[in-house]
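Lay summary

Proteins are chains of building blocks that fold into shapes. Our project writes down both the chain and a compact code for its shape. Here are two examples, one after the other.
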Amino acid sequence: MIVRPFLRFALLACQPLHAQAPGPLDGAAETITAHDVRARIETLAHDSMMGRDTPSPGLERAAAYVEGEFRRLGLRPAGDLGTYVQRFGVSRWTVDTGASSLELSLGGARATAAFGSEVRVIGGDASGKPIGGSAMLVAGPLTRDVAASPELRGRIVVLTPDFGRPLPSDLGDRVDEIAAVARAVILLSNRDSSTFTRRMDTSLEPRLTPDFRDGDGGAPVVELHESALGEVAAALDLPRLRGSGTSIVRDLPGLRVDLRIVRRYLERAGAPNLAAVLDGRDSRLRGEYVVISAHLDHVGMRPGRADSIFNGADDNASGVAGLLEIAEAFTRREARPARSVLFLVPSGEEQGLWGSAYYVRHPTVPLSDVVANLNMDLIGRNWSDSVIVTGPEMSSLGETLHRVAAAHPELRMAPVADRWPEERIFYRSDHYNFAVKGVPVLFFTSGTHADYHQPTDVADRIDSEKASRLIRLVFHVGAAVANSPKRPRWNPGSHQRLVEER
């Protein structure tokens, strides 16, 4: 399938190109070489890094390498307490089945369910906070309109899916939508006992979560087997509710629910973000920042395989290599930009954009002074002459991108539209957290491939020559933004739509 460049770039590219004298940034850009990119990727994706899981000793080794490069380049530390490192806590835990509790009462009937045998945690908050009150009943077809019912906001919602029949493919999406506005969600389950037991065993496996999200993980979602309900089940008349051909959303003031989910901590650790600043040369603009980012972590190791290490050469040693090459290019005297540049290397991206989420909650420079974020993730594979860029249609950064790409035909690197919009890649890397906070963004990626999240994502499969040209493009775009007298601006309605789509 032919990759179609953005129309604006295509129109610019078809105009006659005249020979241009080398600009002051070209010498700096030429320091970004395929040899150096490959060497950095080989270091970060080496077996000794053990796949850079969050948290892990291998991730710490990779962080030490990045920290050493920041120091060698003379960048100013922008982490905690005058260092290059910002840490956030992560915990491995399971449900404390003895301390957790769920009780339902309806009229004179009362049911107490046991965690670990009769009720399992699917997701959401497990901070130990008691949740109690009357319930809203949702039965029959669970449509998008039903999930969006305003009556569900702030309530304990009881759902009655029929697990004895094939479930709708979008059931999980609807439950997530309800959990986003409810206090708690309880699925009354009629699964067969063996299936329920298997699901229970899975739900009791250790979970890894970031500490900074404790208490705001969304409404708890649990599955309660109806065998634990006793007389409460009879009072609800579950067969009739499950057989309803029309949607039911009804207040049940007589149904009282009391829920408390408690964690049992198994391990607590920290994970590193790396941050460094190149101060701008302009006294008026150096208080503003262009953030260039690339996540450090990958998915670690999977014991029991012939090759158990997932090296993550493309995902995302390639992006971090690019960030370090750009940092080195900017330190050249002729390349020092007017604005400051913050180089951010988060971890925990593979787990759910944890590091960047923590950073935008605890920024080491004011977010109001961050004018743009250019993010790189998986930039070393696929097409030799193009790069997917998401976000240009949202802000004036799109104009900058196309102008810079057209001005540098020697890079042979065309920005192209997202080839897989159904995969929603815009929402799956660290720039997203900046965008939600109101920072205009561009996301540079070569996309996924057969080696994505496989042990075969190794340095030997990287096209480092292509990657070096792509990195030079990001460098030139970053320089254009950092030297512009005007801040990038959102296009009308773009940021509001992004927030509403969360």
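And here is the second example, written the same way.
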Amino acid sequence: MRAVVYDVPGSFDVREVQMSHPGPGSVLVRMTMAGMCGTDLHLHDGQFLATFPLTPGHETVGVVEEIGGGSVDGQGHPLAVGQQVVINPNSSCGACAYCAEGHPWLCDDFAGIGSSTPGGFADYLVVPSRQVFDATGLDPDLAVFAEPSACIAHLMDRLQPLEGCAVVVLGAGPTGVLLTQFLRLHGAGGVVLADPNPAKLQTASDLCDIETVVVDRADVVGSFDAILAGRGGAFDVVIDATGRASVIQELPRLARNGGRIVYYGVADEADVITISPFEVFRRELTVMGSFTEVESFPDALAAFRAGAIRMDGVITHRFALERYGEALDSLRSDRSAHKIVIQG
């Protein structure tokens, strides 16, 4: 079988590798689609918990090919050969203090398929069956968003109550598009999405009842001031989905006194920002991060099946596995690219 393999950061090829077969409690999944996201650029550079040699790919849709003994899916249901599934890449040890406290996403030994173990940019993948979830009947073009949606479902739990809150999301990539829909689903009173790319904003507004604002990342302060002036006030919740330090630095400008600021986009590990502790103190701001999830796939899939989440038109680029390098280049530099997928 073929797989993308990095032996060291920044250096990869698509090569033949040994195909594994499932033992007890695991399944072999044939990959039909795997999404690319900004995290893959960080992994390319050796960041984000990357362990080498590495096969990335953590947003995956596939079909069950073989089933090991005693295997059930993440909700305890039996699996069948030929069944369409999605894979939760995230797992925890179940034994550390964080897991015992009911916070497995903070696990000391957190592991990720596609970062610390081989991922879905391959023809096949053997995974623990408990990390597999039924996606029967879902359009693969929606199912491929299960992993980022699960991470957002986790954030929604942490942000409650959201009812009636005014929220601004910075960044209209696929994550930003999903965030706006989940925020509306959870009762946010008004959602503003800001991005330099009008086409991405149009796609987002076609899918959800939101306001959109075109901003200039070369003038973050001026853009934020314009957002505030246009709206006539600041926001209860401010969410960064860009991972850009220049944007994150200025997030307090958008927050009301007593507001909540969320670092959601993945920043470079070397990035450092300056924040005024007096401002946080005086304005009673809450600054929080939201990393990932371990248990939220059922919530995301339920939202899909209810028709609450739509991603029509967000996938703009499709590449075969052997064209992974071209896909990575598009992810890095093609402004017309919204969502890129590797398709089997």
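What can we say about the second shape? The mean pLDDT is 97.
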